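Bench log. Compound arrived from synthesis this morning; before running ITC I wanted a structural hypothesis for how 2-acetamido-2-deoxy-beta-D-glucopyranose sits in the protein. Inputs:
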Amino acid sequence: MRFLRHAAAVLACIATPIRAAFSLTESSSTYVVDTNAGLVFTVQRASCDITSILYNGVQMQDQSKYSHIGSGLGSVTASWTKIGNYYKITCATSTLTQYIVGKYNHAAIHLATYTTAEPSIGELRFIARLNKSVLTTTSIVAAEVNGGSVVEGSDVFLVSGQTRSKFYSSRPFIDDHVHGVSGSGYAAWMVVPGLGSRDYGFELCSGGPFFRDIDNQGSAQQELYFYMNSGHMQTEAYRQGLHGPYFIEFNTGSTPSADYDASFWESLSVSGLTTFANRGYVTGTVSGIPSAYNSYITVGFSNSAAQYWVRADSSTLKFTSPKMKPGTYTMTLYKMELEVKTQSVTVSAGSTTTSNIASAESTPTTIWQIGEFDGTPRGFLNADLIETMHPSDSRMHDWVRPTFTLSQGAAYFPMALFKDVGTISISFSLTSAQIGARTLRIAVTSSFAGGRPVPTIGSWTGATPAAPTAIDSRGVTRGTWRGYNISYTWSIPSGILVTGYQTLTIAVASGSSGTTFLSPNFVFDALSLY
Ligand SMILES: *[C@@H]1O[C@H](CO)[C@@H](O)[C@H](O)[C@H]1NC(C)=O
Ligand SMILES: CC(=O)N[C@H]1CO[C@H](CO)[C@@H](O)[C@@H]1O
């Protein structure tokens, strides 16, 4: 049987080199899968490296570096089986099993990764290293680093006067189902499939809906990634089990839909899979969030085993979760990226749990406010640039600002403060009715090296807050603000605020030090006086 398939493939190859029959051909060192859709890929039996990806007869795989989990699995025990319209290759190591599936008539490499422990390198990613002369263009020019000189770490570079980094290709998980690279007549797409009820391809990732990680890098290769977890601003423990499924699709250029039914995995006998039938839903209505945010309301669910999210419908404010694994979850209501309520909810297999959720955000009437309390620095100076540039980039506006006045608006207020770069002063005027004992609030979305705000007004300096929970990685210099949000408040005693003008100066406190943008820092969400 196997021989016949092989023979048929060889014959078909001679007759029509591109479109052979659906087959898996085994040699002593490789498995070659022909999808019958113009895609033929080769998996090394010893390592599970993907070493050849022929699409319409053209080699997509870089021939000097291959595609795999991490930097390669080393030595694996490989086997294959045919189940209906699928060839399943299983590559086992002691703590990780990689599944590679060829589906009849789909020009894609279907993947899923089962883990029982975090890889020793401390992150879990699939990297496809594609041929850059064929797939010339990264989805985002800010991730094209080839030939650059190092600006920071070994991952931020200067190319043609612009800062570039693979980190600038990152997008929040909630918006990252499909990303790709392309060239003339060819494109490759990383797809984490499933919308609506089937939106659970990220269930084993960590960090919640707004966690973002590397999608691609243009080096000597065209690198296309699915980062399932990493220490890149890690705020949550890693999860183990069946990651994905996900797939790399090859086509001539059009963006594939994320609305892809990958439920065929249920018939493939893979470890750690919870079938659709053995899952349950949470449904409900959100309330208490200002209507300006109606299109930006997310409900998240997490426990140590899984995480999910769904955007509430912007007109009805109702939501129905993806189909979730049974268990008890912390359910979180987000106004944009700001947590405004958490509650517990229990999901059981085959049933729907109703759990309405209402914002518990406290919204005191303010004397003044700069920015919006939404869990992001959006609206502040440089916030529109930070996701794709290093703070040192010449296209950034000066981080050191003259005294800020409220009438200037948030767009003149820096999104972040760096200890070694400077403080920010705010001049504001109060009426006699506004003075007295008041509260100053400064909310931040992330911090680095223990950075937190300390305010001074006249003779009063607010107490230095406790150090924020440390995140063991760079943050804002890698284009992200998504860390631990913290809302700091200080009671300003009576007698400090005066009628007329005064100046509030905010500095960065930290027991650590560092130079310029790698000095202790934090990112502003918003600030107010009430
Ligand atoms: C990339 O593709 C080009 C064109 O097919 C080929 O000449 C080159 O050798 C390939 N490079 C690598 C590193 O695979
Ligand atoms: C104000 C706010 O959003 N606070 C949340 C910030 O994040 C922490 C940790 O994720 C939550 O516990 C807070 O409720």
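What the model suggests: The chain has two domains: 21-267, 368-529. The chain has one helix and 39 strands.
ITC booked for Thursday regardless.
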